Amino acid sequence: MRLTILGGGGFRVPLVYGALLGDRAEGRVSQVTLYDEDPARLTAMVRVLRDQAAAASAADPTVDAPTVTVTGELDEALRGADFVFSAIRVGGLEGRAADERIALAEGVLGQETVGAGGIAYGLRTVPVAREIARRIARHAPEAWVINFTNPAGLVTEAMAEVLGRRVIGICDSPVGLGRRIARVLGARPQDAWIDYVGLNHLGWVRGLRVGGRDELPRLLADTEALESFEEGRLFGAEWLRSLGAIPNEYLHYYYFNRDTVRAYQEAEQTRGAFLRDQQRGFYAEAARAGAPAGAALAAWDRTRAEREATYMAENREAAGAPEREESDLESGGYEKVALALMRAIARDERATLILNVPNGSTLSVLDSEAVIEVPCLVDANGAHPVGVAPLPLHAVGLVTAVKAVEREILAAAASGSRTDAVKAFALHPLIDSVGVARRLLDGYAAAHPGLAHLR
């Protein structure tokens, strides 16, 4: 099979390639095409992947590494693809840093997928995602698209307008959360059924069944166990018991909004600025000519370790939580989700995965085309959401409000209307003023050329 990765020079590409190196099954991915508009990033990434393949082969000579090709031409990248993995970043990390800075100046959150920053990112990403979807429909109509581009639920919904159910969104947050809960309960993650429901970066684990028994009440009753993993330390046992559920870590931005905004305002630099500076150093080192074999992979490993250790550091500071523990540093596993998804579709190996898919009739408070994040049964015909219990009213309020914002982003990206864009900002639960919404839009339009028409 042939896999095309859009955003092929992106930092997390080695996670996907590493997962492919471990796949020995018949019909595995044999060719990977990296597409990126930045040749220097592609050069660096090819060196990291070459080091990965060499290390895997040295450990096991039977490893059959997928061949890697690169291109800066989108249509060329898409032709003949069986799967397309989309992980683009419109505006780059410089854009993310600007999103954060502009929002914090107005006293609101600028995180890349939540609040003002997420809206700005969505406004400039949705038009690009729609064009990519049209190009896929033209040049690879039989391909399945796995979307990891943020905001993942919103972008998946935009691409589904063109591609229908052949585009499926993935995220590593629910995977990591479910795994941590299972381990605290003494269960193997693969043996647990995770009752998870919501939108991307806005969901809750409401139960975890092992052998037909829901073990979550046992965890909620045990303060020591509850505060032994990352989400428990972030939210605190008392709040989790009051919810009767374990929220996705991104809900910390909602439940403790003032605390996190203050922590971000007081930080030396925003997360986007940190990653921008960090990755500049990595790509320069990885692309350096004459470096010894293995140097690019070693640089990537060091950079990734630092990236994971500092993830959501401001939230932990706001919560008074300690630094991340070793068990929290493991990758959420989106690359494993992507591989399991490809296997299930290509080989009809049925799997149960938490994915971003059109709602259908799963949640009655949303229409059928609204993309939600829930457990799905996956087979050769795609992903099928599993029926879930209704959301409690507090969750209904957040889910419907944020979905309304997403719909205004989709409308504004299509119409180019300032009115629609202001409405998207003003309706978000974390932006409490129409006046602030207007100033935010003006700030983003001045910072990002692609949004200049909205001023």
Helix and strand topology:
Elements: E1 2-6, H1 13-21, E2 31-35, H2 39-59, E3 67-71, H3 74-78, E4 83-86, H4 92-105, H5 115-139, E5 144-147, H6 152-163, E6 167-169, H7 173-184, E7 192-199, E8 202-210, E9 213-214, H8 216-220, H9 223-226, H10 230-235, H11 237-243, E10 246-247, H12 252-255, H13 257-266, H14 271-286, H15 295-309, H16 313-319, H17 334-347, E11 351-358, E12 371-379, E13 382-385, H18 393-415, H19 418-427, H20 434-447
Parallel strand pairs: 1-2, 1-4, 2-3, 4-5, 5-6
Antiparallel strand pairs: 7-8, 8-9, 8-10, 11-12, 12-13
Unreliable parts: none
Count of DSSP H/I helices: 20
Distance between the termini: 46 Å
Count of extended strands? 13
Mean pLDDT: 94
Q: Please summarize the sheet with the most strands.
A: 6 strands, parallel
Shape: globular
Oligomer: single chain
Which class of secondary structure composition applies to the elements? alpha/beta
Beta fraction of the residues? Answer: 5-15%
Strand order of the largest sheet: 3-2-1-4-5-6
Helix content: 40-55%
Structural Rg: 21 Å
Describe the fold and architecture.
By secondary structure, this protein is an alpha/beta fold. It has 20 helices and 13 strands. It has a six-stranded parallel sheet with strand order 3-2-1-4-5-6, with helices on both faces. Strands 7, 8, 9 and 10 form a four-stranded antiparallel sheet that branches. A three-stranded antiparallel sheet has the order 11-12-13. Helix 6 links the parallel strand 5 (144-147) and strand 6 (167-169). The chain is globular and about 55 Å long. The relative contact order is 0.13.
